[in-house]
Design brief:
By secondary structure, the protein is of the alpha+beta class. Helix content is 38%, strand content 18%. Helix 6 crosses helix 7.
């Protein structure tokens, strides 16, 4: 009874049927990469990376990466069975939590450092995380998965580096088990896909285009500069980089203003690695967006109820106005609107950010502001943000 804490509101602003939206959420929760190109490469999936359920990979494989792959792909039979049993018990009941408690801010920061060491440098724990049958076997200082309640129990005190590495290792192996299960399920279900779904998939294939080597290099340099100019971070060729051309105008209900390029930069192959996703519009009146996500980004962020978050609205508005003035040369907006965080059912949920929409006539720039760190995590704008 596992909950991956996916914020369903993240995909609620995309035009789709309730069935399609729910299917997308369930596919991502179950570790499946969406076959729907619109969501596989859309900016909505950037936010889903925060949940640690989407792995973006690419580029050449390092020795550390191959070492990690060897570790998860060649688990002993007994260990494979343990993860298979955990997956079998995982019915994604939204009323339950995956962990016995949340990671502390200090644990999150060490998690980020040790996750880099795990995936980039091949630093693995000395022992595997314990698998227990019953809660009676658990002690206060243990880190263990307990089958009785299908939860990962963290020690009552701060986790040691070894325990955090065990937890990261468990996540990697569990994700590998999910992916293997999804591949088997996809093969079994392939013949059952109805004609309408096949048609839709084929249509998405036609609007998702590979770019030329020349364009790939152009967008690589362009987005490196955008990331530095907007977020002050230098990404380099050690990061995974990917770009696709998206011709949405080939789909019913879309026009040429929505055509563009989807660019992704991911710091490593880790599920919670820092990731930038950028939409570059083809036309001057198209939609530009840039987002940053990953545990490193949100490690020091606290969650607030909407009631408590409203006390920070003036501070956030000032930060956002200064941000768009400095980065895009935009002055005082005609009006500012902000939005309460809601799930797909329209219910208020706790959130670590507030999204502001700054209107200039009919045009707007939407900016997500992280309350705890007083930083911006995403920007979306039409007409007002020009990209050379």
């Amino acid at each position: 009874m596992r909950e991956h804490d996916i914020d369903r509101n993240l995909v609620s602003n995309i035009e789709m049927s309730d069935e399609m939206r729910e299917s997308l959420i369930q596919d991502v929760k179950s570790g499946k990469r969406s076959k729907d190109k619109r969501f596989r490469y859309s900016t909505a999936l950037t936010a889903l990376c925060v949940a640690g359920v989407l792995i973006v990979s690419g580029g050449s494989a390092s020795a550390a990466y191959l070492s990690y792959k060897n570790r998860v792909e060649n688990m002993p039979q007994e260990e494979q069975q343990e993860y298979a049993e955990e997956l079998k018990n995982d019915v994604y009941n939204a009323g339950d939590e995956a962990l016995s408690r949340s990671l502390t801010p200090a644990e999150k920061l060490r998690y980020v450092e040790l996750q880099d060491a795990y995936y980039k440098d091949g630093v693995f724990p000395e022992e595997n995380m314990a698998f227990l049958d019953t809660l009676s076997e658990l002690t206060p200082d243990m880190l263990a998965y307990v089958e009785e309640d299908n939860k990962i129990h963290l020690p009552e005190g701060e986790m040691s580096d070894e325990q955090i590495l065990q937890y990261i290792d468990h996540e990697a192996k569990y994700m590998h088990t999910i992916e293997e299960n999804a591949e088997e399920a996809s093969t079994a279900e392939a013949e059952e896909v109805d004609e309408q779904t096949k048609e839709l998939e084929e249509k998405f294939d036609t609007i998702t285009l590979e770019v030329s080597a020349e364009d790939e290099e152009h967008f690589k340099q362009q987005t490196k500069e955008l990331i530095y100019d907007i977020f002050g971070e230098e990404v380099d060729d050690s990061w995974n980089y990917d770009v696709y051309e998206m011709d949405w105008s080939g789909m019913e209900g879309f026009d040429e203003s929505e055509d563009g390029y989807e660019v992704t930069w991911c710091e490593s192959d880790a599920p919670n690695a820092k990731t930038y996703q950028i939409t570059i519009p083809k036309s001057s009146d198209g939609l530009f967006s840039i987002n940053v996500c990953g545990m490193e980004v949100f490690a020091e962020c606290e969650d607030f109820s909407w009631e408590d978050a409203q006390a920070y609205l003036p501070q956030g508005e000032e930060t956002v106005k200064n941000f768009v003035k400095e980065k895009f040369g935009l002055g005082e907006p005609d009006r500012v609107e902000y939005y309460e965080a809601e799930n797909v059912d329209g219910e208020s949920i706790d959130c670590s950010w507030i999204t502001y929409a700054l209107y200039y006539g009919e045009d707007y720039v939407a900016v997500s502001w992280l309350i705890s760190t007083d930083e911006v995590s995403s920007v979306t704008g039409k007409n007002l943000i020009k990209v050379d």
